[in-house]
Amino acid sequence: MGRLVKIRDNKPEIIEATTFEREVDLQEIVKRFPEIIPLDEIDEEFKPIIVIGREFPVKEVGSIDLLGIDILGLITIIEFKLEKNSDIRKVVAQTIEYAANLWEMTYDNLDNGVRNYLNGNRCAISELKGKSLSQAVEWQYKRTKTDEDEEFSHEEFIKTVTNNLQKGEFRLIIFCDKVDDRTKRTVEYLNWLSRYDIYCASADFFEADGAQFIKPYLITKDRDGISGGKQHAGKISFEEYIESIPQEFKEFANAIAEFHEKLKSVNGFLSMGTKGFGAYFFNNTIKMKPFEAYPHHLYLASKNYVLAKGWNIPEEALNDFEARISSMPIFKDSFRQSRHWHRYSFNRMTIKDLKGYFDFLFDWYNKWFPKQ
Predict the structure, then answer these.
(1) What burial letters (b/e) apply to 246-274, b meaning 16+ CB within 10 Å?
(2) Maximum separation of any 2 CA atoms in the chain, in Å
(3) Strands 269-272 and 277-282, bridge-based pairing
(4) How far apart are CA 208 and CA 264, in angstroms?
(5) Per-residue confidence in pLDDT tens, the chain, 372 aa
(6) By the number of CB atoms within 10 A of the CB, which of 61, 271, 290, 295 ranks highest?
(7) Residue 95's pLDDT is what?
(8) Is-contact 164 75, C-beta < 8 A?
(9) Is 70 exposed, middle or buried (0-12, 13-18, 19+ CB in 10 A)?
(10) How do strand 211-218 and strand 269-272 relate by DSSP bridges?
(11) C-beta neighbour count of 146 within 10 angstroms
């Protein structure tokens, strides 16, 4: 357990972490504040989840402590266990059993179970009363969307959730206070082998001056840390993305594939999503995502986005980036806009435009961040 040091009047005060005597109390606080789950330590591209079930019944095997889903349709199974109450290794097996029984469930059956929860007294969010699964997620989407985000599509959401159910692609979180080394290694091994994501997570809880402070963290390693970037559950592969690009943009697909190969040579990487990817330049000094790619379009980052992310780009390099991208007619507005992203459809650019942008990115990166 961690601790906080509060300094008042130049005197330190040690604040010890709060312990939970009952798992149900831990469940309740995570249900009310699912932001506690440290998804950003797994993948910063993950979206916040909304809780869609508490003690969610699963035929013949019991009930899931908490069931969550994000706006992209990835289901999260969350089980809670305090070390003093049970062998954590048994909980790992139990959690996998829940996932196995959700596998191939129909969307309608999931939707019915979610409706029962939303209309019952365990759901404390009054705005969700009477809503279906997709309507509840749309409510969450509207609360978190930005001006650049596309409109929520019930049809696409239902299709994605159905696909994840049929493939058995879920995220599994075991939320506990402590994990022994044997269990930790077992969970990391399963994560390395599987198509779903399974993690052990925890949090330190503190109370001071009438407020609560919570520090969440992963106990097990993230997937990138153990498997060199193995695909996360609910996300497409790069090959699937390339195949999703319409035939009329075949040249664009080839250019993007060439960009991907070249990106590896400068220690860059792609973070895959449900429909496309974010491209990152990365080294010991900086991390920067200049664009996102989808089957029909690109999103280019604005200066506001780069600054907001705190990616530690030197001012001279950032100014050079802005000046050079502004000299490219089709992309001239993207780095100056007040919004975080600017959309460019493939049918409104040429292959020369796209290749010119990729060449510019590598030239700029190599100029300001040469290999050591």
Answers:
(1) eeebeebbebbeebbeebeebebbbbbbb
(2) 68
(3) antiparallel
(4) 47
(5) 678 888 888 999 899 888 888 899 999 999 999 999 999 888 877 888 999 999 999 988 899 999 999 998 999 999 999 877 667 888 999 999 999 999 999 999 999 999 999 999 999 899 999 999 999 999 999 887 766 667 899 999 999 999 999 999 999 999 998 888 888 999 988 888 777 789 999 999 998 888 889 999 999 976 554 444 567 888 889 999 999 999 999 999 999 999 999 998 888 899 888 889 999 998 878 888 999 999 999 999 888 888 878 888 899 999 999 899 989 999 987 777 677 888 999 999 999 999 999 999 999 999 999 875
(6) 290
(7) 95
(8) yes
(9) buried
(10) unpaired
(11) 8
Distance CA 351, CA 150 (A): 25
Strands 171-176 and 197-208: parallel
- 360 touches 290 (CB < 8 A): no
Q: Judge contact between 72 and 47, C-beta under 8 A.
A: yes
Tokens of 245: 């690009």
Taking CB atoms within 8 Å and a gap of at least 24, the contacts of 28-33 are 29/205, 30/66, 30/78, 30/80, 30/175, 31/66, 31/124, 32/124, 33/214
Which residue type, as a one-letter code, is found at position 114? V
Distance CA 236, CA 247 (A): 19
The residue whose two tokens read 């506001």 is 304
How many whole angstroms separate alpha carbon 21 and alpha carbon 138? Answer: 36
Counting other chains too, the contacts that 274-279 makes at CB distance below 8 Å and 24 or more residues apart are 274/72, 274/73, 274/74, 274/160, 274/234, 274/235, 274/236, 275/236, 275/241, 275/244, 276/236, 276/241, 277/238, 277/241, 278/45
Cα-trace Rg, the chain: 23
Query: Which residue, chain included where needed, has tokens 């963290």?
Result: 217
State both tokens at 183. Answer: 């269990």
The beta strands (E) that lie in the chain are given as 3-8, 11-16, 49-58, 62-70, 75-81, 171-176, 197-208, 211-218, 269-272, 277-282, 287-293, 297-301, 341-345
Which residues, in sequence order, are CB contacts of 325 under 8 Å at separation 6+? 300, 331, 332, 334, 335, 357, 360
